[in-house]
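Project standup — Tuesday

K.O.: blocked on the structure for the chain from last sprint. Re-posting the sequence here as requested.
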Amino acid sequence: GHAAAVRGLTLGAATHEPAGDDRVAMATMHRMCLDAFEFLDEERDAFRPFEALADLTDDQLTVPVEAAHGWTGRQLMGHLLSGHEVALAVATELAVNETSPAKERADADWDARGGEVVNAEIDATWATLSMDELRDRFATLPGELRGYLTVVPESRWLQHGDHQRFFRSETTAHYEDHLDDLAAILAAAGR
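H.V.: unblocked you, prediction finished:
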């Protein structure tokens, strides 16, 4: 990781500053860290509005809202968590490998069966959880994903075009796609 790379830098004897090409390496490492932190900050900020769903009562979370495609708050929570769950599986694999079989399976499943079928299956799966289990997962899974992303080498997600697109599609872009649903569900609950 970064620590090993930093330990390998040559320091100038008199200044304790990186010498020559090592300054470029340090600047690059600094930029990668900022990119990771920027992504994680952006993701955290983008998810924050959805945390209002946790403040709704169980009854409010089970009311279908026509303006949100007939979804309930519970369904929206599960839908977002499904993206976190697959992203966590991918991040876990990318932390130790260059590739992710979980991502390959998810992409192939989406391509073969289509979004409507996959999303209906996701909805059914998350509906089997008790409300307490759903609330617990909603409170912990996003942070768990963020934590795993901090140990995935940037070369495997931020600097890898396909993987970066994948993580954005399961997080920030996914949230953006559902902001109107969130607003409708919160409005229906009087929030």
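K.O.: great, moving the ticket to review. Residues 21-47 form the longest helix (27 residues). The CA atoms of residues 95 and 153 lie 7 Å apart.
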